[in-house]
Specification:
With 184 residues, the chain is mainly beta. The protein is built from no helices and 24 strands. It has strands at 2-3, 8-9, 13-14, 19-20, 25-26, 31-32, 37-38, 43-44, 49-50, 55-56, 61-62, 66-68, 73-74, 79-80, 100-102, 107-108, 113-114, 119-120, 125-126, 131-132, 140-143, 148-152, 173-176, 179-182. A 9-stranded mixed β-sheet has the order 1-4-7-10-13-16-19-21-22, with no helix packed on it. A hairpin with a 4-residue loop joins strand 21 (140-143) and strand 22. The protein is globular.
Length: 184
């Protein structure tokens, strides 16, 4: 693990090869996998979980109750919430907060806001500036406020044709109970 001299990593649960850059802060108790990149100004709270190979770009805020599986990309200034009815005089924690799950391979563009209690599906792609207020299916491409599905994306991040075939890598996709899944 590498921690920039101006970064702060207080967690004992950080995987090999992870890098924490200047002005980033990882609180004690946060679980961070191997080969993650936590960029300048990012904040990872003490009950947050990041899988392996997660990219946390500059100024991303990952609060308690957020779990990001492996190979997730969090674009600059993305922010998660964890309390549906926050009040300064109420200090909620643990199971009083609503969890958020970002499934393997998902991408959140710059400035995305994720409202707590949602799941973002495997290999989904949330466009820059979107507000995710409900679950996002696997391989969905969503944009807007609130985020709405505008199409489907491949694992390689290319928009799928109407026949659900990737024009870049040729992977075919089929519907399943949680959006799409790669065929074969």
């Amino acid at each position: 693990m590498f921690v920039h001299p101006m970064g702060l990593c207080e967690s004992d649960s950080v995987g090999a090869g992870t890098r924490v850059w200047a002005f980033a802060h990882v609180l004690p108790g946060a679980r961070v996998g191997k080969d993650c990149n936590i960029c300048d100004g990012a904040f990872v709270e003490n009950e947050a979980v990041l899988g392996d190979n997660v990219t946390v770009k500059n100024n991303v805020l990952v609060y308690n109750g957020v779990t990001c599986e492996d190979n997730v990309f969090l674009g600059p200034n993305a922010v998660f919430t964890n309390d549906m009815r926050p009040r300064a005089h109420q200090k909620l924690g643990g199971d009083q907060l609503l969890p958020t799950l970002v499934r393997e391979g998902a991408t959140l563009g710059a400035g995305v806001v994720v409202v707590c209690g949602t799941t973002i599906g495997r290999n989904a792609f949330v466009g820059a500036g979107s507000v995710v207020a409900r679950d996002v299916p696997a391989h969905a491409f969503v944009v807007g406020n609130p985020a709405k599905r505008k199409g489907w994306v491949c694992r390689c991040a290319t928009r799928l044709d109407d026949d659900l075939r990737c024009p870049s890598c040729g992977t075919e996709h089929v519907p399943d109970g949680d959006g799409l899944v790669a065929k074969g």
